[in-house]
Design goal:
The protein has 409 residues and is an alpha/beta fold. It is 28% helix and 22% strand. α2 runs parallel beside α5 and α7 (239-247) crosses α11 (361-368). Bound molecules: flavin-adenine dinucleotide. Flavin-adenine dinucleotide binds at residues 56-62, 79-82, 87-89, 103-106, 108, 191-192, 220-222, 225, 230-231, 255, 344, 349-350, 353-354, 379-380, 388-390, 393.
């Protein structure tokens, strides 16, 4: 997708959704879709249910859903493939003098979204945030680096508000508000390979050969995992559901953080790509940090090109030489040799970055359709309120767990 000018700043509001789209098509996303959120969520209700619910996946969506069950004393278990909770949320400590999100990082929304996700009323938030209004930005077309005029940047941010956590992370937010309350119910290192819903009770099989029985199942694995058919559904999913899963786009990609002894770059460098994103950004922006950390978020076609280099070391080398071309050798001169590379595209239980499903309402509706009032689906790709990213995943969890419990009365 090529959109001149603003397109190159699109990572600011979650890659692939540019202000251009928001303003020119009236498309509502993140902060501009805050009004779409329901007044009440599952957090505001009381539920009674006597069966057992199995949640597959301990990412933001699964953990938020689990919190509802915990608070209503409903029997449940979370089955997680890896040895940690958070999914596409991950925190790195020790690389800089501030905690770094190496998965989701921006709050593409109004600050009060954090209250909404916690079930707290009002606009006054407890978390300290950074207003993500850039002061400098450049465009890189592969041979030329050009500055974005400040006026254009200011206009952009008049139309869309964005934030980051000041000395915390998305990971911490989800850990503190959800994971720590439900962690005792997580079964780690247990990739689910089959969901048999042919009988009255549902039988979940893990890769370790374990069988777990429940009355309802909430599947919150990434859309990339559903696409990969790692999980066998018995009976098979119908063609409408399979088509919806297949039609939702989900970009491959990675994040890279590089440490420099001097800051030679602007807040953001947006690079031209065929599909997806390639954005360099100042990780330390407004962080009161003594470190110069430059991030690279590469998804879609640019990531596929980088992957061809074969190793993370080769990718780093290539990135440094590209930065050298942009900044006359400054990258090699100031690079300390320290980097962090987080590959989400090749992660077995993530298989990508995020989906742009809110573009495609019919697929989202289909993806959200439960099967036989037994198998339910939630997660980042099931975002019904156009919130995007983490808020979209959490709100989808609330929506679906409410549906599941309401249909089970
Ligand atoms: C690089 C990157 C940058 C991003 N930037 C932002 C951002 O700035 N702001 C924002 O709001 N969002 C951002 N996002 C998107 C955001 O991270 C996701 O939308 C959100 O975290 C999805 O949560 P989830 O619970 O739906 O899925 P996940 O977090 O993926 O959780 C799913 C869980 O299921 C587990 N699982 C997978 N397969 C199985 C299986 N077979 N059996 C059992 N468990 C399984 C996984 O291990 C994982 O723990 C970004 C994502 C990435 C990757």
């Amino acid at each position: 997708m090529k959109i001149k000018g603003f397109r190159s700043l699109k990572h600011i509001i979650l890659p692939v959704v540019s202000l251009f789209i928001v303003s020119c098509t009236g498309y509502e996303f993140g902060a501009n879709a805050f009004h779409k959120l329901p007044e009440e969520t599952a957090l505001d209700k009381i539920y009674n249910y006597s069966g057992k619910i199995i949640i597959i996946g301990a990412g933001a969506s699964g953990l938020a859903s689990a919190k509802i069950l915990e608070e209503n004393n409903i029997d449940y278990q979370i089955i997680e493939a890896t040895d940690r909770y958070g999914g596409r949320l991950k925190k790195i400590e020790g690389f800089a003098d501030f905690p770094m999100d190496i998965g989701a990082e921006w709050i593409h929304n109004k600050p009060e979204i954090l209250n909404k996700l916690k079930g707290v009323k009002g606009k006054e938030i407890k978390e300290e945030l950074i207003s993500y209004r850039l002061e400098s930005s450049s465009l890189w077309d592969g041979s030329n680096l050009s500055k974005v005029p400040k006026k254009e940047l200011d206009e952009y941010f008049e139309g869309f508000t964005e934030y980051k956590f000041k000395n915390s992370t998305w990971y911490d937010f989800v850990a503190d508000n959800f994971a720590k309350k439900v962690e005792h119910k997580i079964k780690y290192n247990s990739p689910v390979i089959a969901i048999n819903y042919s009988k009255e009770q549902i039988e979940i099989t893990t890769k370790n050969g374990e069988k777990i029985i429940g009355d309802k199942v909430l599947v919150t694995v990434p859309i990339g995992v559903l696409k990969s058919k790692m999980i066998e559904f018995i009976p098979k999913l119908d063609s409408k559901k399979i088509n919806a899963i297949e039609s939702i786009k989900y970009f491959t990609g990675f994040k890279l953080a590089l440490k420099f002894s001097n800051k030679f770059y602007p807040n953001v460098i947006s690079c031209e790509t065929e599909e997806g994103d390639k954005e360099f950004y100042d990780y330390s922006f407004k962080k009161d940090s003594k470190y110069n950390i430059l991030g690279l978020l590469s998804t879609g076609s640019s990531a596929e090109e980088y992957y061809k280099l074969g190793s993370k070391e080769a990718i780093v080398k290539n990135v440094i030489s590209e930065l050298d071309r942009m900044f006359d050798g400054a990258a090699s001169k100031f690079y300390t040799g320290d980097f962090v590379f987080q590959d989400w595209g090749n992660h077995e239980f993530t298989k990508g970055t995020w989906s742009t499903s809110f573009f495609d309402k019919s697929s989202i509706t289909e993806l959200n359709r439960p099967i036989d009032k037994k198998v339910y689906f939630a997660g980042g790709a099931n975002d019904l309120y156009n919130q995007g990213g983490v808020p979209g995943a959490i709100m989808s969890g609330y929506y679906t767990i409410d549906k599941l419990l309401s249909e089970s009365k």
